[in-house]
Amino acid sequence: MSLYTKYMEEIQTRKTELGLNPQPIDSAELVSEIINQIKDTNNEHRKDSLHFFIFNTLPGTTSAAGVKAQFLKEIILGEEQVAEITPEFAFELLSHMKGGPSIEMLIDLAFADDAKIAAQAAEVLKTQVFLYDADMERLKAAYEAGNAIAKELLESFAQAEFFTKLPDIEEKIEVVTYIAGEGDISTDLLSPGNQAHSRADRELHGKCMITEEAQQEIVALQKKHPNAKVMLIAEKGTMGVGSSRMSGVNNVALWAGKQASPYVPFINIAPVVAGTNGIAPIFLTTVDVTGGIGLDLKNWVKKVDADGNTVTDANGDAVLEEAYSVATGTVLTINTKEKKLYNGDKELVDISSAFTPQKVEFMRAGGSYAVVFGKKLQTFAAETLGIETPLVYAPSKEISHAGQGLTAVEKIFNRNAVGVLSNTPLHAGSNVRVKVNIVGSQDTTGPMTAQELEAMAASTISPLVDGAYQSGCHTASVWDSKAQANIPKLMAFMNKFGLITARDPKGVYHAMTDVIHKVLNDITIDDRAIIIGGDSHTRMSKGVAFGADSGTVAVALATGESAMPIPDSVKVTFKGKMAKHMDFRDVVHATQAQMLKQFGGENVFQGRIIEVHIGTLMADQAFTFTDWTAEMKAKASICISNDETLIKSIELAKSRIQIMINKGMDNEAQTLQGLIDLADKRIAGIQSGEEPALSPDDNAKYYAEVVVDLDQIVEPMIADPDVNNDDVSKRYTHDVIRPVSFYNDKPVDLGFVGSCMVHKGDMKIIAHMLRNLEKKNGSIEFKAPLVVAPPTYNIVDELKAEGDWDILAKYAGFEFDDAKPKTAARTKYENILYLERPGCNLCMGNQEKAEPGDTVIATSTRLFQGRVVADTSEKKGESLLGSTPLVVLSTVLGRFPTIEEYKSAVEGIDLTSFTPVEEAMTTKFNAGEAVPVKVVS
């Protein structure tokens, strides 16, 4: 059977079974067969083959793009003739292929002997930005050899004509509102985790956005208002909380954006999204990737009395009143020049934050990638010509306050800033390019990252990146047909690109399904590092980490850079004494509760850096805090540790990196060994006193300061989705924190200990509790199922070596076996202990899930509706979040324990040794200490 025949059968199956269009082509072999059918003017498939070649072949560095670009070059040179594809049309098609082989062909043509063809190729090249080192070196060599076309191209690039000749964005953009949900909208609504396997198939994945009914309502609005863009809204909430999925934005763009190129299917850009409380920071970054618009509507405001005091309800929460309506079907106008939102002639709200000079450039260029690559290309061209880089793009926003010290994040940004013009330290509000040290890609967004890398014509990892890792944790629970089809292909691509991969494409080392955040936390060996990862929980306890969409991850991998503002910081310190029966998870939840109380319900963490002065808590345990900051809606977090603790944390990271090396996971570039060398250098700097542990200056300025009183934490604290709250906007917000006594006698249907919120200490707590219960009762009976998924294989190995795994295995009704991994997800649970494979498990919700309607108590991080547990018609599923000992005891009892039962169960267990530091963890301000590095690239 020919590849084309097979493709036609797939098309028919796709159409009949799924109602979808043909899958875009990325295979060189299939395109070659299609080209042969195009050449044969009598071929019965010629018409369809022409259509597939022109409109359905993926661009960039796919193997299909290479064959397509070569054929177009042959048409332009007259070596092949196709009546439907003139040389002029061939040039147009090359111009839409972005980079990689298309750029190679265009440069070939620009340097050809035929002057007319060379001139045409040069004009197309002047519109392109995705040029890489090999392309630039060709231009540079030709220029130095006196080639006039090369000089013309470099002059155009230096003036950034690829950007300046683009049309300005429209002054007035008409939108019609669509309320996608009331309350916070998580990306699970836009791109459900249980459909993660289809994310790389954009049309198929688009079918899962919100509901089919919602999709049709959006289509109906478009038909009714053909001149308006549909704007998706989170009413009384924040849009895009949780994971920073590109797939969520892609789905919105697919239904409510515009096609990026007529010759590339299902890649849409420029969606408009909004929220009463704005857009989650990492989601907004993703909107920027597509050149879209994200609005902070502020259409519900706190009600005040005659004296200006906030009116509160019976629960003490602020009463909100509607400033203006955005009910579905309301036609509004965005004025991009005035930066205001209008209803007719009535001004509703200032939206200037959505139209900063940088964001306007993203919109004009069709996305942030084009701006990032354009700046690099302009700088290269100017340097090659020996001229100053003309000021074309909006300059980096560089804010500096004389005499003001720096927060921890400001110090990190100053250290990593690239192309900075200022000679003074940068403060919050500045917007700069920064060098990225560590990059992580996860396995349910990884296929999209691979697509993005192909689309931007990247073929190898940037040498600026210290280390990068491709995980396998999100698909670890079940090795089903979907995982078997997607994951090996992903690992092979990323391994070739230069990442350390969880699975070895050659099968040399054992597949590792460790949770990505834990691995990134281990390979981060510098507290001054910047980390970018394809998951919202990329929040390390060393350095500063930003969860990002698959596209931003791709840019970081390809360029070693990212562009972002320096956020404001909120300082978190502790006082009092931690009760012996309290777990650090209780401190984490109490932090959120006390913060909200201290600031009258305002979440001061949202969109900011949480600088937590953790002191002597090791990185593994501190990660419990930083991980949860994603649910606090913070942009990122930073742990301030003392020198001794930081050294211990780096030494632990070194040992785990060495284990990876011993397993055979290092690559030809010896990335892992390079990280150990950098770790040794960092430790030496701390020990010598030349480069002590990161700390803020004593006169740094914070947006707010939160003091957590440990004395107030006397009961285990639970984060509750509050599924039955009369106000739907207050469900699933992560803001409802309650003591365990609130739940006296409440039944528990399932317990889960695992995902990124636990560490080795949690596994040892389970073992200790089982020994205690065994000693007390003679045997252990679970009255509710307990699922345990250790975060890493290293932890499993260490538990086995120390004897703790034995007690876990003794009471396990199921223990994972890598030789025979599960091929189907569970739909029912017995009242036993399940020892699952390291990985995300229930937290991800794409494979394993609780039974619908269950009340689940978990160490997970997700309260989103339907993520861990779905609803039934009779009962809503509840995913309540708490500490490891609370989860274990609740499953043994089959209900929530009383405080007395809980205290008895944890007696003698060292849950967390955490004592607030007494001295201020700051550095004496020195104005000359943190001058930005001036690296131009």
From TrEMBL:
Residues 7-163 form the Aconitase B HEAT-like domain. Signal peptide: none annotated. GO terms for molecular function: 2-methylisocitrate dehydratase activity; 4 iron, 4 sulfur cluster binding; aconitate hydratase activity; metal ion binding. Keywords: Iron, Iron-sulfur, Lyase, Metal-binding. InterPro entries: Acnase/IPM_dHydase_lsu_aba_1/3 (IPR015931), Acoase/IPM_deHydtase_lsu_aba (IPR001030), Aconitase/3IPM_dehydase_swvl (IPR015928), Aconitase/IPM_isomerase (IPR050926), Aconitase_4Fe-4S_dom (IPR036008), Aconitase_B_HEAT-like_dom (IPR015933), Aconitase_B_HEAT-like_dom_sf (IPR036288), Aconitase_B_swivel (IPR015929). GO terms for cellular component: cytosol. Its EC number is 4.2.1.3, 4.2.1.99. Gene3D superfamilies: Aconitase, Domain 2, Aconitase, domain 3, Aconitase, domain 4, Aconitate B, HEAT-like domain. GO terms for biological process: propionate catabolic process, 2-methylcitrate cycle; tricarboxylic acid cycle. Residues 179-406 form the Aconitase B swivel domain. It comes from the Bacteria. Residues 411-894 form the Aconitase/3-isopropylmalate dehydratase large subunit alpha/beta/alpha domain. It is an enzyme of class 4 (lyase). NCBIfam families: PRK09238.1. This is Bifunctional aconitate hydratase 2/2-methylisocitrate dehydratase. It comes from Pseudoalteromonas arctica. The lineage of its organism: Bacteria, Pseudomonadati, Pseudomonadota, Gammaproteobacteria, Alteromonadales.
